[in-house]
Amino acid sequence: MSLPETTLTQLQDLMRKNSTLLAQVQAADDAAHIAAIIAQAAAQSGITVTHSELVAHFEQEARDAATPLLSDAQLDAIAGGMNRDEFIAMSVFTLGWGCFGVSMEKRKTKVPNNLGDFGTVEFCLS
Prior knowledge:
By secondary structure, this protein is mainly α. 68% of the residues lie in helices and 0% in strands. It folds into two domains: 5-66, no CATH class; 70-126. The protein is rod-shaped, with a radius of gyration of 33 Å. The termini are far apart.
């Protein structure tokens, strides 16, 4: 259950203005106790909210916080569009083409032997 926006705003103002209430909430050890403290302070301040509404709100907020907003695939797409396996495959592929290009450039600069042969292609190693 979500509390109305006006109630949430009133509770935020109450917490901001009342440092004693804030200290009590920070010292509390569980959500039910925090809800009881806030419900009592809200009632004294004329804010209409019950203990059970606060407990339900806290439980919903906890569930929402535990649920990821984006899937792993969506996060991968945002982070560069590739997952780990795709990244490795692309790296191997581009390394291969890079080495091929270097080898072909080296082959162009070699002097042919007397048989008209350019010799062996040295693949990225020399």
